[in-house]
Every structure is written in structure tokens, then in C-alpha cells.
Input
Amino acid sequence: MVWIETMDYATVPLPQPEILLIPGALGLAIAGAMGAGALQRDLQTFKFGWRQMVPITAIMAISMTILPFLGLTFSGDWGMPDDELKDVLIYDDDENKKVLWVSDSDLLPEPGEEFTDELSIIVTNGLTPSFKDRWQPPRTNIDGLLKESLDLARDNGTSNLGILLAQFGITDIVLLERLVPLPSTGPSFQIEERFKLSLSRQLDLLKIDVAPGITRYQNLSSVGFGAIATEGSTVRREISNYASGSGSPFIDGLKPTSLNMRDYQGVIDTNQEIYVAFPFSEQWKLEVDNVAVDPEIALDWATGFSPKNTGTLILRYSTSGTQKASVVLQIILWLIAFVALARSLSDVEVNRR
Output
């Protein structure tokens, strides 16, 4: 009923969601109490077995279902207006683009990284941030490089900020001074005029006034996260030499074949190389016409490939076997610990009888 009300499918007015959720909350509480009582009673008679796993599995499933909602209650998303940024930001969203958001920390999809005393920044995959964007990767020296690039533009030290941001795969910059577009009401924030003027001076950023308080800059020097570049422009090239250049070395973006920025394909010609805006990792695998190419360091930090042949390429990221084994081992250890604890508790109850 709550979903029908929020989607405006009902032809008659319905009570507020808080009222509609009361019977469900009461039923869930009663069912949970009955399940806990039945489980305790069952353990007094029988040892822990597969029957006891049924209510435990149900509890885990319910907990996993409500966790996202609990996160939203703390993030400020609860009760947001129906008008959303994605409704006003016209954008060709794919899995080969990254967006840099600049605003106050409270207006960003996630608290982000502090840029100045008043501004914070965050990089997401596209203009439609999801719940998984709340878990940002560990901080690395790349975060410092990004802030240094923005500081350089803020101090009028460069007129080609787009080239500096292209190495991170950033194709767009969004300045948020309103949480939601007009006519909806919501929190607002005034970005310093100094930073906005510095962006307007950049020769490779195209300003797009989306709505009052919402401004987008398209990076004309970037083609995305995975890119085809001219030979020798990124692989084994120092970042200082790249930053002093006046033109973008990136020719075209790779075509994503999955929704997780892990698989790409394309066609490479002579005098070209592959650049991935990802800290150097041997887990990136490249094949050109079924011939494997080893990764190399690009711009002192990223992953690059310099194939000597031309043809159709397939680029993919392969999770290491060590990481997979460690995750499986953790799950097994937790299951063993849980079963051992449950059996010990059941033995204590039997001995008391």
C-alpha cells in the first residue's frame, strides 16, 4: 500500500505512509516474538539442527532487507522531494564515465573528501548516485592529485583543468548549490565565487546551466574511465610531463560490456595505447586478437597497456584468487563460530533439564 501511494497509482487518497506501516510493523514484531519463543522452546528439546536454521535465515533476510532503509534514515534522504537531479541533468549515462561533484558535504550523495574549509568533493560513476556510492574506496595518493588539480585551477594556475581531470576518467563536473531543483524546496548552499570563476576560465570545460543552483561542466578533454590514447602519451610517461601538455592525448573511450566498470571492448590501431584511470594493478587483463598484453604503469600511478599489434581488444578486471579465498574463508569461520555457539547454548539448556 505504501508503494502504491508513493507511485501515485491509487485513485483514492490513502493515509500517510507512517499510518499504513503500523499494521505491518505490529505483525512483524509479533511474528518475530513468536519465532524467537518457538526457537527457544525447540532448543530445549532438540539440539541445534537444520530446523533451527529456518528462522535464523528468515531473520537474516529481513535484516538485510531493512538495512538500506536504516541507512537512508541517517543520510537525510528520508522524505526527499519527488523532483530529482537526474530529472534535470540531461546526460548520456554509461559505465565508462565518472562525475566529480562539488558542494557542501551535506548536499553530496556521500560526505566526500574535504577540498576547502567549506567545499567537499566526491567522484561517482555517472550522474545517478546509488546506495553503493556511500562506500568509497580507501584513500590513496590519487585523492591528493585530484585536489591538487582543483587547487591549481582555483588559484588560476591553469586554463586546461579538463586535461588534468581526464587522467582520472572524469567527464563531468557538477556544482550543487541546491539539493533539489526548483520549484521543490530543500537545503541550499552558496559555492564561493572564486571557485566558480576559475571553472568558467577553463578552455576545455563546457558550462551548462541546468537549473538555478545546479551547474554542469562537460570535460571536453576526457573520453572516460577506459580510453584509447596516442602511443607514448600515458604509458611510462611522467605525470609532470603530462600536466605540462596543452592537448588531450585521449582519442576515444572504450565500450563497456558490463554494468560494473570491469569489462570493456574496442578496436585499437597502430600508434595507439590503452589507458585505464585505475591505480596500477596486474588484475587488469588485456587481449588484442586473443594475444595477451602485460599492464604497465601510466602517468606514475594508473594502469596502461602498450600493445604492438592492432585489432579487436577485450579489457577486463579479474579479482585475485587470494581475495576470493579470503572472503570464502571468513564466511566459513563465521559459520563455524555461529554453529559452535548455538550448539553450546543448546547443550547448556539440556543439562539444566
Summary: Residues 322-353 form one domain. The helical segments are 2-6, 17-45, 50-75, 141-154, 161-166, 193-200, 239-243, 321-352. The chain has eight helices and 16 strands. The chain has four domains: 2-75, 85-219, 245-317, 322-353.
